[in-house]
Write a structure and sequence with these properties.
Number of strands: 27
Structural class: alpha+beta
Radius of gyration: 23 Å
Oligomer: single chain
GO molecular function: zinc ion binding
Number of helices: 11
Protein name: SWIM zinc finger protein
Largest sheet: 10 strands, antiparallel
Pfam families: SWIM (PF04434)
Keywords: Metal-binding, Zinc, Zinc-finger
Distance between the termini: 31 Å
Strand order of the largest sheet: 6-5-12-8-9-10-21-20-19-15
Domain SWIM-type: 421-456
């Protein structure tokens, strides 16, 4: 049975190998009307099950220039280390066909920037042959060809091998083996949980977006984007409605797209006075498309250590609910928790917790523009993510060793490495150095998690 990707453990600690197999390389053939773009697919999952080389779409992309620039921006993120830059392997984008749209996702090599290009129904004119998720080949020659695409004419687009109209395909199989850090895998799980707590904070028309983004200082560290009239102004401290901007240079892939942008939308969590740095999302509205960058709270912080999904990984009942809800998913572009609650026979709150659990396994993403989860499949599962998380592993070890003792109602003592820490699981507070440093801003510490595991009833035999 062929999964989305062939992923196997190699000898480097904290690293896996992601193996892609393509029937032929992706290619672009220029033509009189925008040319032909054929995106080769690796093993994927569709509504029909596992497929070696799924075919999702064949038709016309209404704007060749916008689509080419968006795909290049996505590929640029995938091969960039924004923190401590150095040469790295490029990782092919994940593509999901949700029926009425194509979603293309990638992560930076440092795991601190998540990028997604949504190609919406108004930009597509053709046949959707299946819904599902796969990886698409983005190679050097393709990038060079896309960089030369100009004009507003339509372009033929094929996602899958059957309809690629190019002259360079010779049927030779293309194999890639790319080192994939486990923190990169964990980041996919974290970003959807973090983004689900965002609200729209500002929407700038195209000219204001250009003025703001082109006027940002370079290498300024952590800034705050403060709403001011119809625009935003960068400040050093947060005010009401501000959005954190950690590392303005991480927005660089927005700049080539500004000539197409009709608006810039900025999303973030509520920011109290004196707030610490927080994640944020920056979305360019393009003709028939959206390009979104989600930034971690600081350049040196990847999403893998944010701890937003840790609580969702410890509940046995949530895992069972996730199995039930997951069986109902069918690559929908928007998941309605109320509808899923009716179909699953579960309360709405349990369905939302199940969606978070499914997100830890890469089966659910989050779209800030529509404030909704969407279904996709990634090449790892919830148990794999849980096993990779060092904080959760340490918490399970403490709970199994009997290191948790109740002192009084709502107050516990956790003994770790010969030191006693006082924990209040209801508030998530602890007397350990982790809590003193982060105050819950990066999820619960291992002592709080151990206490919650201790208090979780054992599942029935």
């Amino acid at each position: 049975m062929i999964g989305i990707l062939s992923v196997g453990i190699i000898s480097v600690p904290g690293m896996t190998t992601q193996a892609y197999s393509y029937a032929a390389p992706s290619a672009f053939a220029p033509g009189d009307r925008g040319g032909h773009l054929g995106l080769a697919t690796s093993g994927g999952t569709s509504t029909e099950g596992a497929v070696a080389h799924p075919r999702f779409f064949s038709g016309v992309l209404t704007r060749a220039d916008v689509g080419a620039a968006g795909l290049l921006a996505l590929a640029d993120v995938a091969q960039t280390r924004y923190y401590q830059p150095r040469p790295t392997w490029a990782r092919d984008p994940v593509v999901t066909c949700n029926g009425d749209r194509l979603r293309m996702e990638s992560f930076s090599a440092c795991a601190g920037v998540y990028a997604r290009l949504d190609v919406l129904s108004e930009a597509l004119d053709g046949e959707v042959t299946a819904r599902g998720t796969t990886n698409v080949d983005v190679n050097g020659p393709l990038r060079e060809a896309l960089a030369r695409v100009g004009g507003a004419e339509p372009m033929h687009l094929a996602v899958g091998p059957d309809e690629m109209v190019v002259t360079t395909l010779d049927g030779a199989t293309v194999e890639k083996k790319v080192p994939l850090p486990e923190r990169w895998l964990r980041s996919f799980a974290e970003v959807q949980a973090i983004a689900s707590g965002f609200d729209l904070r500002a929407e700038l028309p195209g000219p204001e977006a250009v003025r703001f983004l082109r006027g940002l200082p370079r290498r300024a560290g952590v800034l705050w984007a403060q709403p001011a009239g119809r625009g935003l102004r960068p400040t050093s401290r947060p005010g009401p409605g501000a959005v954190c901007l950690a590392g303005s240079e991480r927005l660089a892939t927005l700049l080539p797209l500004l000539r197409f942008a009709t608006a810039l939308r900025v999303y973030g969590p509520p920011v109290p006075p004196g707030a610490r740095p927080a994640a944020s999302a920056w979305e360019l509205v393009l003709p028939g498309m959206r390009y979104v960058l989600t930034l971690s709270p600081e350049e040196r912080r990847g999403f893998s250590g944010e701890g937003a999904v840790l609580d969702a990984l410890i509940g046995d009942d949530t895992a069972e609910d996730a199995d039930l809800v997951g069986a109902l998913l069918d690559f929908e572009p928007r998941l309605d928790p109320a509808d899923l609650a009716v179909r699953a026979g579960l309360p709405d709150a349990r369905v939302r917790a199940a969606l978070t659990q499914l997100g830890t396994g890469g089966r659910v993403g989050y779209d800030t523009a529509e404030a909704a989860f969407f279904h996709r499949e990634l090449p790892y599962d919830a148990s794999r993510v849980a096993a990779m998380n060092p904080r959760l592993r340490a918490a399970r070890a403490l709970a199994d060793q009997g290191a948790v003792r109740e002192l009084s109602e709502g107050v516990f003592r956790v003994t770790s490495s010969g030191t006693d820490y006082q924990v209040r699981p209801a508030t998530g507070s602890c007397t350990c150095p982790w809590w003193a440093d982060h105050r819950g801003g990066r999820g619960p510490c291992k002592h709080v998690l151990a206490t919650r595991l201790h208090n979780t009833p054992a599942p029935p035999a």
